[in-house]
Design brief:
Elements: E1 10-11, H1 18-38, H2 43-50, H3 54-71, H4 86-94, H5 100-108, H6 111-129, H7 135-164, H8 169-177, H9 179-211, H10 213-219, E2 225-228, E3 233-235, H11 238-241, H12 245-252, E4 258-259, E5 265-266, H13 273-282, H14 297-326, H15 331-355, H16 365-381, H17 389-418, H18 423-433, H19 435-452, H20 456-489, H21 498-516
Helix pairs in contact: 1-7, 1-8, 1-9, 1-10, 3-7, 3-19, 4-7, 5-6, 5-7, 6-7, 6-9, 6-10, 7-8, 7-12, 9-15, 14-15, 14-16, 14-17, 14-19, 14-20, 15-17, 16-17, 16-20, 17-18, 17-21, 19-20
């Protein structure tokens, strides 16, 4: 359907069918992230049935996480604490570069087709897993097929929420992304009950039917209808045919922003078809200008800290339930520990993001991030001393809270390091860096259990990796502070680094947008 044309700046509807999209995204995060976390509940069942060691069994969880990370965006942070202009926020959430396969399918066909195809793949993967007779087949059915399906579903749905909301975007994403924690809280005991009633094969069969609801969510991802400031509605004609996320940007963003050579946001006059084609092409393949931040020493240290972070934070989610069972905790109580982790994760995500957004803590956001990661590391170091359910509950509460806390600050810390103009590309690199540690750290943790006969070394490895991550960032923070003091003592103006440019870019974008309106 051809859209109506009129001069003026198009804006998202901020409601209406957008709340249905939020509900779909909420359901998608439950079916993807919550189900992935609950796979650790099957750990002991797989190990006992196939007679495999810990290292071999851990590959199932690591493969599904790595496949989702490499092929789709793996991000559970809310945008609330990210202080960016609406232009940059929209570009981050609708042009995120962390999901090549999901974006490619969404751009080539439609977001609806991508999510429905992903739902079909993930459901079939779990269905085939319930009939497998070898651990190697589970690697393929759960790790690859289901992981690829989750990747296809996650990114297009996240992008659609950003297309439907502008002024209420933080609220919309806060509701949508809470499905991960709420889903884990509900699904963990439910999955354990299904295993007890129908065995692990029956539980996977039920999960397959549950994940099939992703196809329903995909069917509800209709074309976006935006309105102009004069009140005339403009409907995107390309979404139904192509579902191109970039086509929404042509309507919503291109009239507000255009990247100059320095990555600053400028207003174009009348974008030509060549510009639109270039923007569509760049949605899949980045120009080298967007990777300038890779040369920053601060970002290299940040990337190194993320590698240690991903190596440590994934181990408790994989081995907490097996460790609790080995300590004599019942199956229901062990599964409930995952529920606690999930719901407290959301609490930490929201409250810590809100706290660090206050004026008194805003200058110390990097320090708050370092403290939250370090606290996670200390929690893991004390796990071997906790041998009962009442003692493991405080660990689940503290670890879940600080896990949600640091996740909420990842975009903020990254923006402070590289600057707002490079945030989208930098986050793509940051989340991509999580893939390799997610793939190798669980099997390494399982190998340590196999050779030592206990989980002590595994949790010590997790704690040491998290503390190393916080130590690296502490070094970066110290160097940055000494650098600033050195320039101040010499009475020289401090050079404008990429991180310092973020405030200038925000002010510049606000001025440009106000002039355009």
């Amino acid at each position: 359907m051809a859209g109506k044309q009129q001069s003026g700046v198009a804006s998202p509807p901020d409601g209406g069918w957008g709340w249905v999209i939020v509900g779909c995204c909420f359901m998608v995060t439950i079916c993807t992230r919550a189900v992935t976390r609950c796979i650790s509940i099957f750990f002991v069942e797989f190990q006992a049935h196939f007679g495999a060691d810990y290292s071999a069994t851990a590959w199932i969880h690591s493969l599904v996480d790595c496949t989702t990370m490499l092929c789709g965006q793996y991000c559970s942070c809310t945008p609330g604490p990210v202080l960016l202009t609406p232009v940059l926020l929209h570009k981050y959430f609708t042009q995120t570069r962390a999901a090549p396969v999901g974006s490619l399918v969404g751009n080539r066909w439609s977001c609806r087709a991508a999510v429905m195809l992903g739902g079909l793949l993930s459901s079939c993967g779990l269905l085939l897993s319930s009939f497998t007779n070898s651990l190697e087949l589970l690697y393929f059915t759960i790790g690859v097929v289901t992981g690829l399906g989750f990747a296809l579903c996650y990114t297009p749905t996240i992008a659609m929420v950003g297309c439907y909301f502008g002024r209420r975007k933080a609220l919309a994403y806060g509701i949508a992304m809470s499905g991960s924690g709420i889903g884990t809280f509900v699904l963990a005991p439910a999955v354990q009950l299904l295993i007890e009633l129908y065995s692990w094969r029956g539980a996977l069969l039920v999960l397959s039917a549950f994940v099939g609801n992703l196809c329903v969510c995909g069917a509800l991802l209709g074309p976006i209808t935006v309105r102009q400031e004069e009140g005339v509605e403009v409907e995107s004609a390309g979404e139904e045919r192509r579902g191109n996320v970039s086509s929404h940007n042509d309507e919503l963003v291109e009239k507000l922003s255009k990247e100059s050579e320095d990555g600053l946001s400028l207003l174009p006059e009348n974008p030509t078809p060549q510009v639109k084609k270039r923007r569509c092409f760049s949605s899949c393949f980045l120009s080298s200008k967007e990777y300038r931040f890779l040369l920053l020493p601060d970002f290299l240290f940040l990337a190194m800290s993320f590698l240690f972070l991903a190596s440590g934070c994934s181990l408790p989610f994989v081995y907490l339930v097996p460790y609790a069972l080995s300590a004599g905790v019942s199956h229901q109580h062990a599964a409930f520990l995952m529920s606690i982790l999930g719901v407290i994760d959301i609490v930490g995500n929201i409250t810590f993001g809100w706290l660090t957004d206050r004026r008194c803590l805003k200058p110390y956001r990097l320090a708050c991030y370092i403290v939250s990661v370090a606290m996670e590391g200390f929690c893991c170091l004390f796990v071997p001393l906790l041998r009962s359910f009442p003692l493991l509950v405080p660990f689940a509460v503290l670890y879940g809270y600080f896990d949600g806390a640091y996740v909420a600050l990842i975009p903020v810390v990254t923006s402070d390091i590289v600057g707002a103009p490079y945030l989208s590309s930098a986050l793509g690199v940051v989340y991509f860096l999580h893939a390799i540690p997610y793939l190798v750290s669980p099997p390494i943790g399982g190998w340590l259990v196999d050779i030592t006969g206990s989980y002590t070394a595994t949790f010590y490895l997790s704690g040491a990796a998290l503390l190393a991550s916080s130590l690296i960032l502490s070094t970066v923070a110290g160097i940055r502070r000494c650098r600033r003091r050195h320039h101040l003592t010499e009475h020289e103006p401090l050079p404008l680094s990429m991180s310092d440019q973020s405030d200038c870019v925000i002010a510049f974008n606000n001025a440009v947008v106000s002039q355009a309106s």
